[in-house]
Batch of 2 targets.
Target 1
Amino acid sequence: MQIASVVVNKTARALDRLFDYLIPERLENQIKIGMLVYVPFGKANQRIEAYVVDFPHKTQIKELKEIDSVIEPEPLFDEKLLELIFFMKKRYFSTYLAAIKTVVPYGMGLHGKSVSDKVLKGSALALSYDEAFTALETARTKAPVQARIIELLMQNEFVANTDIQMLLGCSVAAIRALEKKGVIEPVEIEIFRNPVDYHTISPTKPLTPNSDQQKAIDVISDSQADFGVFLLHGVTGSGKTEVFLQCIEKVLNQGKTAIVLVPEISLTPQMIHRFAGRFGRQIAVLHSRLSMGERNDEYKRIKNGDAKVVIGVRSAIFAPLQNLGLIVVDEEHESSYKSQSVPSYHAREIAAIRAKQQGIPLVLASATPSIESYYKALSGKYKLLTLTNRANSQIMPDVTIVDMRRELVEGNRSLFSNPLKQAIRENLDKGHQTILFLNRRGFSTFISCRSCGYVVKCPRCNIALTYHKNRDFLTCHYCGYTQKNLHVCPECSSHYIKHFGTGTQKVEEELAELFPEASVLRMDLDTVSAKNSHQKILEQFEKDKIDVLIGTQMVTKGLDFENVTLVGVLAADMSLNLDDYRANEKTFDLITQVCGRAGRGSYAGRAFIQSYMPENSVLQMAKLQDYQSFYEEEISLRKSLMYPPFCDIVSLVFSGFSEAFVDTCAQKAAKQLKDALKNIPAEVLGPGACGFYKMNNKYRKRILIKCRLNDTILNIISDCIAKHYKSKENQAVSVLAETNPTHIM
Ligand code: ADP
Ligand code: ZN
Ligand code: ZN
């Protein structure tokens, strides 16, 4: 009889391996890779779900049990997607099961009913992933239904309560019980239905490409049958989207299919209309605000071949399209392509593997490419395609960098510099709109001198040190370097050295004092909720001609307002001194985006960028929109400090209730890693305190490994994690591993 290896649908780390079963004669020709089956498990032969992943020729096990039955006749993934599952398990240190569940959305194959309300009542995890894991293990024995709800919510950011009940056959009481325990929280989201009303969309024809566009289309289409990565670099409005549309059209004409990834925030109705106008009903849209029923419907259309172009967010990279011909990742530098849960995959990385499997082109597009991608483009690994001119003639705004040190000398201690104040005044008088931007909601953590701009940084890592308020010390959460807080500036002896802390709320208050007559809207995590989605706030801003919009990151992308002629970045330093090696890259991107907001219509726009370090070269180059020079400076910095793309970074976060025990486990692991990596070019930093050292009563310590990832190193790290979990008493401390994290906090 034939043997099948399966992954069981149980999350316990100890069960994270393959189990072999015999395929009984009655199922012989039915079992395929990717099928969900029932198998007898454990001493009691409990009947549990399992996924078929291999057909080995032999096995070590003497007495094999038989597969019980097939749950669904259709496989949930094919061999190509299986390769991705194995890849993710290895590269992101996840379990088999977590990797499978990332590829196969929960409830797929079940017939969900669509919900017609505009607002969907549902639930989301109220805990971090590793805390949820602990809650799950506890619930598993005591309250199995609750355990399944937790599992469901660990795999989905949000699930409608009706879907939870329908999928798990449970009552509302189980949901309420988990809410009471604080494990999950009620969330209402406004449904963003696939808003394609084909009757209102008029078909569009391809525009006549300009010469840059034509070249890009030709080069990409010529390599249709070969794997290759193209970096399409061009400012916003240079016609990148038109290039994808025309390449996709060629792909469809050959009977093939395409995936287009976009960041959540730019998946707007306008964007969808653009694709629907060109490709009609051949498109499918995948995003996190669909109900499960709708998501299932889209999956069915993709699987049966009705949908040929999938437009979606990060997870759409796993769309089960047959006969792929092209993959596009728009705004490839966006950090939302990196998953924040386990496995913490990067959609760009997965896209490259899918493209390679199929032997097809992958197009990465951006106005401000990630340093990693641009490096690969210049070194010949990717092919660089540049769109030099704007397809529509738009004027760049006039950008001023305001020296906040001078404002201080002149006695201005307000958040608003005099030039910005005056510009707001003028805008109010003209009836034009203004956007003010602050890139963090709450408090920032770095210490800087307001007299000279000096910032306290780690001497080893060049990362701004994090201020820990309760103990008044500064620490580098990359390497653990710690020093006493400073009260006098070492550069200029000023006493005006302190931590930076301004929230959007404070900006709103001060603005109300300065301009009591101005109408103001605020958009940050506190004001944006399900019912008050950011889309809605923006609509109100536009429709009601609100004078000033104050916001965080959210206001930078994808907005297009005729009447906005002034943008202010209140504290550019907050971005420049992020405790992250990507601080410069993020700042350059931010300022490019922000400046793109001013003057989209017929009026010329102005942008004011306030800083205590106005001579900073990143600000200067961003002001000139000089990506090339920025890249050259940044890449040499990355090289000298050994940051990506010159190495990979793996972060291991140890967390638990006992501070001492967390430290013990982290120290042990660090020692073990240092020993194992002794003869390999790799650097083990820490353990050091995380930026958020204490979260939900748990202490968090981090080890960072800088190295060039290969199989040997991946195995060493995953052995280290496995070794930690092997000891029973260590279960009190969890380890969260991340490969090339986007936020090291
Ligand atoms: P990007 O994706 O780089 O922001 P788009 O493709 O959205 O740029 O193009 C910006 C604008 O220019 C759109 O309104 C688009 O319709 C228009 N456009 C793009 N290419 C052409 C072209 N070849 N001829 C005329 N208009 C174009
Ligand atoms: Zn100073
Ligand atoms: Zn350091």
Note: The domain at 648-739 is CATH 3.30.70.600 (Alpha-Beta Plaits).
Target 2
Amino acid sequence: MKFSIYNSLTNQQESFTPIEKGVVKMYSCGPTVYDFAHIGNFRSFLFGDLMRRSLELGGFAVQHVMNITDVGHMVEGEDDKMLAAASRVKENKKSGRVPEGAIQDPNDPYQIADFYTNAFLEDSRKLAYKVAYDYPASVPKATDYIPGMIEMIEVLIQRGHAYVSSDGVVYFSVESFPEYGSLSGNTMDKLQSGAGGRVSDTNQSMKKHPADFLLWKPDQKHIMKWESPWGVGYPGWHIECSVMAKAVLGQSRIDIHTGGEDLIFPHHECEIAQSCGCSGESHFANYWVHARFLFVEGEKMSKSKGNFFTARDVLEGKVTGKPVHPAVLRFELIKSHYRSNMNFTVKGLTDSAATITKLIDFRAMLESKTGGKSAEVDLSHPVLGDFSNALADDLNIAGALGVMHNWLKTDHRDAELSLAILKKMNSVLSIAPINEGTDGVEVAADGGQHGDGDAQAEDWRQQMVDARKNKDFATSDQMRDKLVDAGYDVQIGKTDVTIKKKLA
Ligand code: AMP
Ligand code: ZN
């Protein structure tokens, strides 16, 4: 299948050819785990997921790796960063987002990282982010790769790409790598200081060039520290991705690297310099793909504006006042093209809920007609051909959804065939939940939010039916109010009452 991707390296859409026929090695920069992941983070992660699943639909075997940054952010060398992380933990405990018993010592970065790693994996699985099901094999943690980082820094020093400054700090020398700046367009002379990013890097006078970035910082006093040939200390932020991509994907040059647009510089520029500096290859990733930022109701997300939403806040109903089905949030986050800014709105969420409800009902109808049996189908079917061709065109999601919506309107007399087509579409979209995913990950699990409530709702519904039979309208009204409060649509018929859970 012909796939094309917009490559940030060349600023154009290119036809996609993997290094090894039929196999795709893909790396996505993952979360820093000092707080819950927000919907912007998930926009970036789920675009990577959409790319992976689209490639899989096209027949590629995709090896997808995403890291967990459990060291970079807390090693800024500034105590206030640690204090900030600790105070956020305290805030989150106060609001009940972090249970009292968790993170017993909010000043312990390992406890903080551990807690938020688990929270991230939980959120990711609800949102059907496929790579998260493959933890830890495909989701490496930076703190597990410190020896690999030390080794890569040693190679960089040997190859003349890195040096130890007079104060003992190890820097990458950007002048040793003339291609530095080619991804972001930041040519060397344009570059100001601070290109190292995130890590305390204040001692400019010790660097050969202001854009040189930190690889290792000796610091005996620091809270997260490891032995190294340059003294006890900690690594720079960028080195972790170069090391983990190579270690887990098993080669120095990979096919696709993804992340949010803010990572182009300095992070990805530095990753390229390190990986190519170490391997001698002309490329680290052949295709660099970046998602544009998510906005909320047209504005940048920020805590001070009160429009900063974590994924679990949305799912738990803290944003809209009622729980949101994970498939609804997933759909909302993937339905706009990754190269346009996405605007998250409550209205958008409601529209997404309508689509998901329709799909769930459609699926249920097909399953009841077929008893769950579906036909064999592949991309030679014109509907699936159009659907996959749209996705293969730089993830044209609007095109793919258009194909799906038009197809939904056709007649579905051959229910087994329609179920098969829906399942194939759902292997990419993962928004029409089913009881059991074909590979265990197709389904956007509802995380128990809806399942547990159902027995209770059924009980209220039955009480309502009984009360109405006895003309006890006060009890019937009481039960109806309970159902409505629990997020159900209640339809009263002549002899029966039907209820339906609203998805958002
Ligand atoms: P971080 O945890 O800050 O390292 O970010 C994890 C991922 O989320 C990175 O790929 C970022 O580029 C991405 N990201 C952060 N904020 C946003 C946003 N508002 N919209 C889209 N992606 C974002
Ligand atoms: Zn990275």
Note: The pocket of zinc ion (ligand 2) is lined by residues 29, 241, 267, 271 (CB under 6 Å).
